[in-house]
Design goal:
Blueprint (H helix, E strand, L loop, with lengths): L9 H14 L4 E7 H9 L2 H4 L4 E8 L1 H4 L2 H11 L4 E5 L13 H6 L4 E3 L3 H10 L4 E8 L4 H13 L5 E8 L1 H9 L8 E5 H7 L4 H8 L3 E4 L3 H17 L4 E3 L11 H10 E8 L3 E10 L8 H4 L15 H5 L31 H8 L11
Parallel strand pairs: 1-2, 1-7, 3-4, 3-5, 5-6, 7-8, 8-9
Antiparallel strand pairs: 6-11, 10-11
Helix pairs in contact: 1-12, 2-16, 7-8, 8-13
Amino acid sequence: MKYLSEYRDPALVEDYLKQIHQVTTKPWTLMEICGGQTHSLVKNGILDMLPEKITMVHGPGCPVCVTPISIIDEAIYLAKQPNIILCSFGDMLRVPGSKENLLEVKAMGADVRILYSPLEAVQLAKENPDKEVVFFAVGFETTAPANALSIVQAAQTGVKNYSILASHVLVPPAMEAILGDPDNLIDGFLAAGHVCTIMGMEEYYPIAEKYKCPVVITGFEPVDLLQGILMTVQQLEKGEYKVENQYTRYVQREGNKLAKATLEKVFEVSDRTWRGIGKIPMSGYEVNEKYKRYNSRIKFNLDLPAAEENKECISGAIMKGLKKPLQCPNFGKACRPEHPLGAPMVSSEGACAAYYHYASDQKPAEALS
C-alpha cells in the first residue's frame, strides 16, 4: 500500500542512515514531539541505528500522558453521577486519577463507554434524552476539530443533553516551555505531522528564530523519521535554524483552513496544566462563551480540589527530554502497563509503554546530562 511500503523501504532506510552517519560530526540532542513518532523510532529499532553522537529524547506529544490527575478526577466524578453516560477514547480508561481510574469506576457500575468519535456521543445523546452524555475530549490540535464539530452538530440539531470535558493541549506553547527551561538540552525538534496537517507551519517560525532551534515536520514511518533526522542534523551542522517540511504529502503551510475555522468558532485558547510539567500559559483549548452550555465544567459546576501528581512518576522529566524511561527506578517494576504509576506507561503513544513493549535493551540507561 502506498505510504506504507514506500515509507518502509529498506533501501531508503539504509541510504538515509548512511547520510546521517556521514553528516554528523558533533553531538546533537533531538526531540520528537509526538508519541507516535516515539513508538515508530523504538519499535523499528531506529534508535540503535543512529550515530552515537545523536541522542533522541521523547517529548510531551502524548495527549493522554499530559492530561493531569485533576482532570482525570473530574471525569471520574462525572462518571459516578447516576444520570451521566461518560464517553471516552479507550486509552483514557486506565490512566490513574488521584484514587482510581475510569476502568475501575466502570467495573463498579458507572456507565463509561469507549467510543471512536465524539459524533458517536452526540448520537448517543439523541438516543438517551433522559441522560446527560459527556465526552471526555482529550487530544492535541489533531483531535480538537472533531470535538468542536460535535458541539456544532449538537447545537444545530437541538441536542441539549450533550457536553464535553475539554482537555485539549497545544504543541507550540509546550515547545516554548521546554526550550525556555534552564535545564533544556534540545538542539532540534521533529514536529508532529498530524498536528501540522491541521494547523500548518506558521506557528513554528517564531520558535525556530527565537530559540535558534531547527524544527522539521515529519511523518511517522521509518523513512519519514530518518529523513527528518537527516534534515535536522544538516541544519545543525551548518549552524542554521529553519522550519522545514518533510511531510509534504499531507502538510501545507497554511494547514486545514476549514478545521481551523471550526476550532476558532467553538474554542478559546486558555491556560492549561500538563501532567508532570505544570501550568503552561495559553496552551489549551476550552469551550468558549457562545457554546458554554456544552462545557461540562460549567454545566455541572465542577470545582474539585486540585490533586497532587504521583511523586514516584518521572513523566515530567521524560516529557521535557531530561530523562528517558529506562532511567526511572520504577520502570518495569512498580510501574508496568497493568499497574501504571503514570500515563506514559498506559497510553498507546506513551514513551514508557514504547520502551516496555519494544526496546531491545531494558537495562538502566545513562543520564542524558
